[in-house]
Design a protein that fits this description.
Layout lengths: L2 E5 L5 H11 L4 E4 L4 H4 L2 H6 L7 E4 L2 E3 L2 H12 L11 H30 L7 H21 L12 H15 L8 H12 L1 H8 L1
Parallel strand pairs: 1-2
Antiparallel strand pairs: 1-3, 3-4
Helix pairs in contact: 1-4, 1-7, 1-9, 5-6, 5-7
Length: 203
C-alpha cells in the first residue's frame, strides 16, 4: 500500500484524509500549490483532468473524484467498516446519503462559493447566491429530518457522514446552519468532535 492524497485545505480532499484516519489507513498527504498555473500544468492535468483537487495515487492507480476515492478505499481496505452490507436496505440508504452529500447538497453550495468567494466582483450574480441559499436550505431540512432521532445519518457512523461532513462544513461557512435546525447543529457538532475530522481540517 502506497497512498498519496493531493490536498488543498478546505477542499474535498478532507473527506479522503478523514476516512484514512478513521480506518487507520497509512497515507501521505501532499499539500499542493493550487495556483492557476499549476492547475493548468500538464503534470497536474495528468492526475486530475479538470485541474481540481483531490487526486489520489494508490500504487499505479490514480483517481480524481473524492466520493469514488472514499468508496474505493472502503472496498479495498475497509474490511467492512464504515459502510453497511451492499444490496441491503441500509446499504441503499448509505449510498443515497453519500450521493446526496455531493450531487444534491454540494451543488448549490458550490454556486454560493462561486458568486461570493471565487469569481471577481464584477462577475458575481446575487440571484445565483439567493437561489443557492434556498436550495441549500431544502437540503438542510432533509438532513434535519434524517438526524432528528439519530446521532448519524444511519444507525451508526459511516462514510456517508464523512461525505456529508464536508458539505456541512461549507454550509456552516456560509452561515446556513441556523438555530432553527437544532438536530443538524447537534449532528454536525458530533462530526466535528471526531478526531478524524479535526485531523482532516488541520492538515
Amino acid at each position: 500500500m502506497s497512498i498519496t492524497i493531493y490536498h488543498v485545505s478546505g477542499t474535498r480532499s478532507m473527506r479522503v484524509i478523514w476516512l484514512c484516519y478513521e480506518l487507520d489507513i497509512p497515507c501521505k498527504v501532499d499539500t499542493i500549490d493550487f495556483a492557476k498555473k499549476f492547475r493548468a500544468s500538464p503534470g497536474w492535468r495528468a492526475k486530475s483532468p479538470t485541474g481540481k483537487v483531490p487526486a489520489m495515487d494508490d500504487g499505479a492507480l490514480t483517481m480524481f473524484e473524492s466520493g469514488a476515492m472514499v468508496q474505493y478505499l472502503l472496498d479495498r481496505y475497509g474490511q467492512g467498516q464504515l459502510q453497511p452490507e451492499s444490496g441491503t436496505p441500509a446499504g441503499a440508504l448509505y449510498l443515497q446519503w453519500c450521493w446526496f452529500a455531493e450531487a444534491t447538497f454540494a451543488r448549490p453550495l458550490g454556486d454560493i462559493a462561486q458568486h461570493t468567494l471565487v469569481r471577481e466582483e464584477k462577475d458575481r450574480i446575487q440571484a445565483v447566491v439567493a437561489d443557492g441559499q434556498q436550495r441549500s436550505r431544502t437540503c438542510l431540512e432533509a438532513i434535519e429530518a434524517a438526524v432528528q432521532d439519530s446521532h448519524y445519518l444511519l444507525e451508526r457512523f459511516t462514510a456517508a457522514d464523512i461525505m456529508m461532513g464536508y458539505s456541512l462544513m461549507l454550509a456552516e461557512k456560509f452561515g446556513l446552519i441556523t438555530e432553527d435546525l437544532p438536530a443538524t447543529e447537534a449532528y454536525f457538532a458530533r462530526l466535528k468532535d471526531r478526531q478524524g475530522y479535526q485531523y482532516a481540517v488541520s492538515v
